[in-house]
User: Fold this.
Amino acid sequence: MNWTKQRLNNLFFFIGVAAVVVMLFTFDVSFIELWQHLCHAGYWLIPIVGVWFLVYGINAWAWWCIIKGNVGSKTLPVSFKTIYRLTITGYALNYATPVGGLGGEPYRIMELSKYIDKQHATSSVILYAMMHFFGHFIFWFVSIFIYLALVAVGDMPLTTAIGTILSIIIVFCLVAFYLFSRGYRKGLVVKTIRWIGKIPGLKGWSTRFSERHAEAMHNIDTQIASLYGQDKKAFYSSLFLEFFSRVVQSSEVLFMLLLFGIDNGGGFSGIAITYLHSILIVAFTTLFANLIGFLPMQLGVQEGGFVLSIAALGLSAALGIFVSIICRVREIIWIVVGLLLMKVDHGESQS
Assistant:
C-alpha cells in the first residue's frame, strides 16, 4: 500500500514538474522582457511572493478547523505543520493540472489518510474544497458592495451595463449560496456520483462505483452534513478564514500598484482606496479565471482577467500585463515550493 502511495506521489510530482516546464515556455513575453519586468519589480518581489506565506497559512488554518470539527477531537494525530505543507502542495498541483482540483484534492486525501481514516480524510478534503469555493462566492458578493460603496463616494462609475453585470453576479452568487447550503446540510457525494451517471458513457461506471462504495459514500455525506449541523463554530470559522485569505491575497496587487506610484494621493485614505481597488481587481480576475478554469494554470485566462479588470479601473493595459506576469512568476515559485515539499520527509513529528 505504501509503495502504491509512493508511486502516486511521484506521479503527482512529475505532473507538476511538466506543468512548470510548459508554463516557462508559454509566457506571452520573451525571456528578455520577463527579466525586465522582474528587474522593475525589484525588492517588491519579496513582499509579493512573501504574502503567500500568510495566505497559505490562513488557508491551512481554515482546513485545520474543518478537520478538527469533522474528526471531533481536540487532539489530532496530524500537526498543523503537516496541514500547512499539504495546503501548499495541494494548491501547487491544483495550479498545475487542468480543472483545478483533479491533482490537489486526491493528493491531499492520499496524504491525510496516513494520519486519520480514509473516510474522514476524504470528507475533510471535500468539505475544505467546498469551503474554498464558497469563500470565492462570498468574496465576489462582498466585492459588489465594495464597488457600490466606491460609487457612492464618486470613485467609481455606475452605468447601465455595469449595473446589469453586477446584478447578474449577485444572482449567480445567491444561487451558489443556495446550492452550497443544500450540499452542507445533506452531503453531495452520492448525488454527484449519480449526476456523473447521467453523462453519456459513464452510467455503467457510476452504477458499479455506487454499488461498490455505497456505505463509504453514505458515511462521507453524513460527516459532511454533521459539521454544518453540529459544529457551527468550526464551519463559520473556516468560512471566514477562507474569505479573509482573499482579502490578504489582494495585498500583492496593492504592492504592485504602489510600485507604479498609484496610491490615490497617498496617506491612509489614499492607500485604503487603492487597497479596495486591489480587492476589486482580484475579485474580477478570479471570477473570470474560475469561469474558464479548465485550462492548465489557467494559461492566458488569468492574464486577460488582470488586463481587463485593471483597464476597467481606468489604469493602463501595460500595468495589467505587468501585474499578470509578476503574479504568474509568483505562482511558478510557489508551485516549485509545493513540489519540493512533496519530497520532504513525511514522518515529521506530530504536535
In short: The chain is about 80% helix and 0% strand.
